[in-house]
Design brief:
The relative contact order is 0.17. The chain folds into two domains: 236 residues, Medium-chain alcohol dehydrogenases, catalytic domain (Quinone Oxidoreductase, Chain A, domain 1, Alpha-Beta Complex); 181 residues, NAD(P)-binding Rossmann-like Domain (Rossmann fold, 3-Layer(aba) Sandwich). The chain starts with 8 loop residues before the first helix and ends with a strand. β12, α12 and β13 form a beta-alpha-beta unit. It is α/β, with parallel strands linked by helices. The N terminus is likely disordered. It binds nicotinamide-adenine-dinucleotide (NAD) and zinc ion (ZN) (2 copies). Nicotinamide-adenine-dinucleotide binds next to α2, α7, β9 and α11. One zinc ion (ZN) binds next to loops.
C-alpha cells in the first residue's frame, strides 16, 4: 500500500471488543464530509449524531473510504443530493452507544457497516433482498434502496465519512468483527468487495462450467468483481478499462486485459473468445462511462451525437462533462452497449454500475435478439458482508491489497479530487476519520 501521509497505525489497530465505551468523553461536534452542491463538498464541523430511535446505534468510525458512487453524486450524474448531507457509505468502527431495543450488540464492539440499510424483518429482508427493504427507506416502501450519504430518494441518511455515525436498525446493519480482521480489510467489505461478490453472484457464474466472464470497468468494485468471478468458478476473466494502472491490477488478479484507448474492445473480445463472446458480463462502470480518448475507437465521432441527449439530461441535473473537477462521463450508456454487444448469444448481463432513475438508454434490441438474460441492482450488502468477514477470517481473501491510499480526514477534499481525476495509482482511497 502507498501511504500518502504518515499514517497513524495505532489509531487503526484492531480494537478489542473489551475496549470500554467512550460515551462520557464524546465530543459534541465532529468533522464530516458534507455535500453543499454539485462539485462542492467540504470538510465541516457538524453536531455529533444522536440516538433517534431505540433501534439505533452510534458508531465511532475508525475507517471510511471514497467510492465511485460518491463521485456520481458530486459530479451530478446521480442527482437529488440534499445540501447538508454527510457523504460516504463505507465504514468500520467501534460501537459507542446502543438504543434500548438493540439486544445483540454492546458498546465497545468493533463492527463493519454494510452500505445499504435494511430492517431485517420485512419480507424482502427475509428473502435476502436487503437493498429493497420495505421499511428502511423513509420515503416509503416503493422508494427503493436506502443507504448512507445518498440522494433524497435513498433516505437521505447522513453518511460514514465522519467521526461518528447513526446506524438505524443496528441489530441487522452492524456486522461484528473478529479481532484478527484489520480495519484495512474490513473497510473493503463494507461495499466494494460485497458489491463485487454480488455482481458475480447475479451473473450466475456458478451454473454450468467453463464460464468466460467479462468485467467492464476496473475500479475497486470491478477488481472485486474479478475476484468474485474466480470465487464463483469462472474459467477465464476478461477485463476492460482504459487506465493502465487499474488494468495492471486486473492482470495481477488473473484477468486478460483490454485497454479501450488502444484497441476496439469488441474486436479484441471476439478475438479472445473464438468469435463467440463471453458467457457472462458484469457492468461495473455506471453512468459516468467515458468515451475513448485515443486509439481506433476515438474515430467514432458520431458517438458524441449519440450520447448528446443522455449528456443533456445529466446537464439538466447540474452535471458538466467539461468541468475541471468532477466532470461527468460523456458516454453514459457506452459500457452497457459494449457489454451487450460483446456477450455470447444467450449470455447473462449483470449490471452493478449505478445509473440514476432518469437514465433510460439501453440497447434493448441487441439484448432481445441475442436472448440475453439481465440481472441488476444495488448490492444486498448485508448477506455478502457476513459471508466475506468469515472468508477473510479464514484467510481465503486478502481484500486490503486493493487499497492504494490511506488519507487523513484533513486531506479528504484533495483526496476526492485526486481520486476523481484518476491519478496514476489512485485505485481506492481509505480515509482515517480521526487523523
Ligand atoms: N450496485 C451497487 O450496490 C454498487 C455498489 C458500489 C459501487 N457501485 C457502482 O459500481 C461502479 C464502479 O464503482 P468504483 O468505485 O469501482 O468506481 P470507479 O469510478 O473507481 O471505477 C469505474 C471504472 O470504469 C472505467 N470506465 C470508464 N468508462 C468506461 C468504459 N466506457 N468502458 C469500460 N470502463 C470504463 C473507469 O476508467 C474506472 O476505472 C460505479 O458505478 C459505482 O457507483 C455499485
Ligand atoms: Zn459504494
Ligand atoms: Zn426490510
Amino acid at each position: 500500500m502507498q501511504w500518502h501521509s504518515p499514517p497513524c497505525l495505532l489509531s487503526l489497530a484492531p480494537v478489542h471488543q473489551s475496549e470500554p465505551p467512550r460515551i462520557a468523553t464524546r465530543i459534541q461536534q465532529m468533522r464530516a464530509v458534507v455535500f453543499h452542491g454539485i462539485r462542492d463538498i467540504r470538510l465541516d464541523t457538524v453536531p455529533d449524531p444522536t440516538i433517534k430511535n431505540p433501534t439505533d446505534a452510534i458508531v465511532r468510525i475508525t475507517s471510511s473510504a471514497i467510492c465511485g458512487t460518491d463521485l456520481h453524486m458530486i459530479r451530478g450524474s446521480m442527482p437529488g443530493m440534499v445540501e447538508g448531507t454527510v457523504m460516504g457509505h463505507e465504514g468500520v468502527g467501534v460501537i459507542e452507544e446502543v438504543g434500548s431495543s438493540v439486544r445483540n450488540l454492546r458498546p465497545g464492539q468493533r463492527v463493519v457497516i454494510p452500505s445499504t440499510i435494511a430492517c431485517g424483518h420485512c419480507s424482502y429482508c427475509r428473502d435476502g433482498y436487503t437493498a429493497q427493504c420495505d421499511e428502511a427507506n423513509p420515503n416509503g416502501h416503493l422508494a427503493g434502496t436506502a443507504f448512507y450519504g445518498g440522494p433524497q430518494q435513498t433516505g437521505p441518511f447522513d453518511g460514514l465519512q465522519a467521526e461518528y455515525a447513526r446506524i438505524p436498525h443496528a441489530n441487522v446493519n452492524l456486522v461484528p468483527l473478529h479481532p484478527e480482521i484489520t480495519d484495512h480489510q474490513a473497510i473493503c467489505l463494507s461495499d466494494i468487495a460485497s458489491t463485487g461478490w454480488f455482481g458475480a453472484d447475479i451473473a450466475d457464474i456458478e451454473a454450468g462450467r467453463g464460464k468466460t466472464v467479462l468485467v467492464m470497468g476496473c475500479g475497486p468494485v470491478g477488481l472485486f468483481s474479478i475476484l468474485g468471478a474466480w470465487h464463483k468458478g469462472a474459467q477465464r476473466v476478461i477485463a476492460v478499462d482504459r487506465l493502465p494502472d487499474r488494468l495492471d491490477k486486473a492482470r495481477e488478479l488473473g484477468a486478460e486485459t483490454i485497454n479501450f484507448d488502444e484497441e476496439n474492445p469488441i474486436e479484441a473480445i471476439r478475438e479472445l473468445t473464438g468469435g463467440i463472446g463471453p458467457d457472462r458480463a458484469i457492468d461495473v462502470v455506471g453512468v459516468d462511462a467515458f468515451m475513448p480518448t485515443k486509439g481506433p475507437m476515438r474515430v467514432l465521432e458520431k458517438r458524441a451525437e449519440q450520447y448528446a441527449e443522455q449528456v443533456e439530461r445529466l446537464a439538466e441535473a447540474g452535471a458538466d462533462t467539461n468541468a475541471a473537477h468532477f466532470a461527468a462521463g460523456d458516454a453514459p450508456s457506452l459500457s452497457l452497449e459494449w457489454a451487450t454487444e460483446a456477450l455470447a448469444k444467450a449470455g447473462t448481463l449483470a449490471i452493478i454500475g449505478v445509473y440514476p432513475q432518469s437514465h433510460n438508454a439501453f440497447p434493448i434490441g441487441t439484448a432481445m435478439n441475442k436472448n440475453i438474460t439481465m440481472r441488476m441492482g444495488n448490492a444486498n450488502h448485508k448477506k455478502y458482508v457476513q459471508e466475506l468477514v468469515e472468508l477473510v477470517r479464514r484467510g481465503g481473501l486478502k481484500p486490503e491489497h486493493i487499497l492504494s491510499q490511506m488519507e487523513p480526514m484533513t486531506d479528504v477534499i484533495a483526496a476526492y479530487e485526486t481520486f476523481d481525476a484518476q491519478n496514476k495509482g489512485w485505485v481506492k482511497v481509505e480515509l482515517n476519520p480521526a487523523a
